[in-house]
């Protein structure tokens, strides 16, 4: 089986995984009481009508009296045709609300991810090359600091220092500034910094420890005997094999942070992104919107893992994609 | 001996360790002439690998420290800057190593790694470099070289990997090839093939070869001259035939005695290598030598004395005015076994 077939099989598997997750979501939803129906019953009772008739009417209206498999087919079709329903709390289609939120989330997520996956391995390999020097200790200290301090707390402290005391960054997020502008950089610099410190530690530690092994390897001696300069040998002969184990931890780390921390950071910095959208949807019991954002996170995770698998195979030629 | 290609004088390599300075190579001399094969022989830990890695200073510095003089084609390598040395490494002086399994980067194709060796030295177009690499792979005996160019190291066997390493070493048509136990990790039939390949290539490329091994069978096969090392010092040197027929130093005699077909007796040398952090006074081998006398355990390693034309040994018994019959031409008797340490107090 060639590489193309392997990629095909992985993509197919990702589709199956996302299908399984949407199925579980559907079953959970079908088992849970629908707040809209309870609402209808309450309404009917308050207006002196028959609550059970109102429930029946509402169920019919929402198609809940149909057999489970019909509802399931409907649900799956609407998921894959992006017909994700109406958000009650925001009075707009769910997909529209999600897209708007994604627009703001992307503005800090993209620079944050890029910084983590470029600076992290570089600093990690540099640390390994200067192991136990003061530079290594500074980098290690920074890594553990970022690792240990809760992102939301760090964000508040930074806002207090730079927003309130020094007044160099705005305290509240302004959605009206253009994406590529100095003001936007200024209001995003703190959330990006907070997220980078939170995620870069793991990247640095993994790349430091992995590359420590490779920099003492036989092939580094070969490279030196060939006349390869230290810089080149680190860039090619240490960095490249380090990326293989790194790629396996990186995606998981970033996804966990993306899903977990983005909410807290968005709340602290007042960014109307995906995290806050989900949070508010939960508070206002907006089922469709909660479901929609769950699906978004699911697809991001599935695609992330798919990418990880593919990157891993490309980076390490020893991985045999036969029989997998 | 023709013009020396490589002349090493008073080469000393020390490593700073937590327990103090470790002297791995203790002021040794040796030379390699053009087109000649010199074997450095000794047991594991005798400093032979460090000695060869000190020639082009690929030992890690720090903790290593290389002193002395290494003259290659008239220039002292130890006085060169790193960039100057890099031009020589892999182009004029090439290395091959003991473990071909680990010596190549598993993330790149063998072709890429050969081309890298060429392109860091000369500004060669990719197509030309590829053609040259395929030609070299062909010459070291890799079948279907052009289709194997894009294969990864894990797709090659151990012997094939060593061939690729040799191809990589040949990119600059080197004057000197340093081969550090290149056949030790390979099985016997492959060993013979690689040795023959090296001999053929030596004639073809007119290379001097500095060959490190502990395998005396390999030495007999490939060497023109031998340097016997023990505990960072040279014990004896000379032409391969002289040393095999008339080993002068008790250590060489003992070492050869380990060869079943010569000594007729299997067995090692009693005792162990001295602690490199705290080497004994006098001859490093004295604590294990059955011929050791008072003069052996004082001062430094004895100066080398010519025992036969072209053959020199670092042993006090050959000093003028001493009776060297106790050690000369001697293979130790079988009954002398195990008395080495006690007789050192004589």
Question: What structural keywords apply?
Answer:
heterodimer, A: 324 residues, mainly alpha, two-stranded antiparallel ribbon, 12 helices, 2 strands, 78% helix, 1% strand, flat, B: 346 residues, alpha/beta, Rossmann fold, 2 domains, eight-stranded mixed beta sheet, four-stranded antiparallel beta sheet, 29% helix, 23% strand, globular, disordered C terminus
What does the model show?
The complex is a heterodimer of chains A (324) and B (346). Chain A has a two-stranded antiparallel ribbon. Chain A has 324 residues and is an all-alpha fold. In chain A, strand 1 and strand 2 (92-93) form a beta hairpin. Chain A contains twelve helices and two strands; from the N terminus they run H-H-H-H-E-E-H-H-H-H-H-H-H-H. With 346 residues, chain B is α/β, with parallel strands linked by helices. Chain B folds into two domains: 1-92 and 173-346, Rossmann fold; 104-171, no CATH class. Chain B is 29% helix and 23% strand. In chain B, the strands form two sheets. In chain B, strands 6-7-8-3-9-10-12-11 form an eight-stranded mixed beta sheet, sandwiched between helices. A four-stranded antiparallel beta sheet of chain B has the order 2-1-4-5. In chain B, a hairpin with a 2-residue loop joins strand 4 (64-72) and strand 5. Chain B is globular. Classes of the chains: A mainly alpha (324), B alpha/beta (346). The A-B interface holds A 217-219, 221-229, 232, 236-237, 240-241, 244, 315-318 and B 56, 58, 83, 86-91, 94-95, 97, 99, 102-109, 116-117, 120-121, 152, 154, 165, 168.
């Amino acid at each position: 089986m060639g590489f193309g077939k392997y990629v095909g099989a992985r993509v197919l598997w990702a589709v199956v995984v996302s299908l399984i997750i949407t199925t579980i979501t559907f079953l959970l939803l079908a088992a849970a009481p629908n707040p809209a129906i309870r609402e209808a019953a309450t309404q009917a009772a308050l207006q002196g009508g028959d609550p059970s008739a109102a429930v029946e009417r509402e169920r019919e209206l929402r198609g809940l009296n149909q057999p489970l498999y019909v509802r399931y087919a409907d649900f799956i079709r609407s998921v894959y045709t992006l017909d994700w329903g109406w958000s009650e709390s925001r009075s707009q289609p769910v997909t529209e609300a999600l897209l708007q939120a994604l627009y703001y989330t992307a503005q800090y997520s993209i620079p944050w991810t890029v910084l983590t996956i470029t600076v992290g391995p570089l600093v990690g390999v540099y640390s390994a090359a200067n192991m136990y020097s003061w530079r290594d200790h500074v980098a290690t200290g920074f890594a553990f600091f970022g690792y240990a301090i809760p992102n939301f707390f760090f964000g508040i402290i930074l806002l207090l220092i730079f927003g309130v005391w020094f007044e160099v960054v705005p305290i509240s997020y302004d959605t009206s500034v253009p994406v590529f502008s100095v003001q936007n950089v200024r209001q995003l610099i703190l959330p990006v910094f907070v997220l980078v410190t939170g995620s870069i530690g793991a990247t640095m530690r993994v790349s430091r420890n992995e590359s420590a092994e490779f920099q003492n390897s036989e092939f580094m001696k070969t490279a030196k005997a060939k006349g390869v300069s230290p810089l080149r040998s680190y860039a090619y002969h240490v960095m490249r094999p380090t990326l293989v184990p790194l790629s396996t931890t990186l995606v998981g780390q970033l996804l966990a942070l993306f899903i977990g921390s983005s909410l807290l950071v968005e709340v602290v910095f007042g960014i109307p992104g995906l995290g806050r959208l989900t949070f508010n949807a939960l508070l206002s019991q907006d089922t469709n919107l909660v479901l929609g954002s769950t699906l978004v996170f699911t697809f991001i995770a599935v695609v992330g893992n798919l990418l990880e698998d593919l990157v891993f195979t490309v980076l390490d030629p020893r991985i045999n994609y036969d029989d997998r | 001996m023709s013009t020396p290609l490589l002349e090493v004088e008073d080469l000393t390599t020390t490593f700073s360790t937590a327990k103090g300075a470790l002297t791995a190579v203790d002021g040794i001399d040796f030379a390699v002439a053009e087109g000649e094969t010199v074997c450095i022989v000794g047991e594991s830990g005798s400093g032979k690998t460090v000695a060869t890695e000190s020639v082009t200073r690929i030992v890690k510095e720090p903790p290593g420290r290389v002193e002395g003089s290494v003259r290659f084609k008239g220039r002292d390598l130890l006085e060169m800057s790193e960039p100057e040395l890099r031009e020589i490494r892999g182009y004029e002086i090439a290395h091959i190593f003991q473990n071909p399994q680990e010596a190549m980067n598993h993330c790149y194709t063998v072709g890429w790694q050969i081309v890298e060796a060429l392109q860091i030295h000369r500004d060669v177009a990719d197509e030309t470099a590829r053609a040259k690499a395929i030609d070299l792979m062909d010459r070291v005996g890799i079948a279907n070289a052009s289709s194997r160019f894009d294969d990864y190291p894990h797709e090659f066997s151990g012997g094939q990997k060593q061939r690729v390493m040799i191809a990589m070493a040949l990119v600059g048509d080197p004057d000197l090839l340093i081969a550090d136990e290149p056949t030790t990790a390979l099985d016997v039939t492959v060993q013979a093939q690689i040795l023959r390949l090296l001999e053929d290539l030596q004639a073809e490329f007119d290379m001097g070869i500095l060959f490190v091994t502990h395998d005396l069978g390999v030495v007999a096969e490939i060497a023109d001259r031998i340097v016997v090392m023990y505990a960072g010092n040279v014990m004896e040197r000379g032409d391969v035939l002289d040393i095999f027929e008339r080993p002068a130093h008790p250590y060489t005699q003992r070492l050869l005695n380990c060869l079943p077909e010569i000594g007729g007796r299997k067995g090692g040398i009693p005792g162990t290598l001295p602690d490199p952090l705290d080497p004994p006074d006098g001859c490093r081998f004295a604590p294990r030598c059955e011929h050791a006398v008072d003069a052996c355990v004082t001062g430094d390693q004895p100066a080398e004395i010519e025992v036969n034309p072209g053959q020199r040994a670092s042993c006090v018994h050959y000093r003028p005015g001493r009776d060297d019959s106790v050690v000369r031409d001697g293979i130790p008797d079988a009954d002398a076994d195990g008395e080495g340490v006690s007789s050192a107090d004589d």
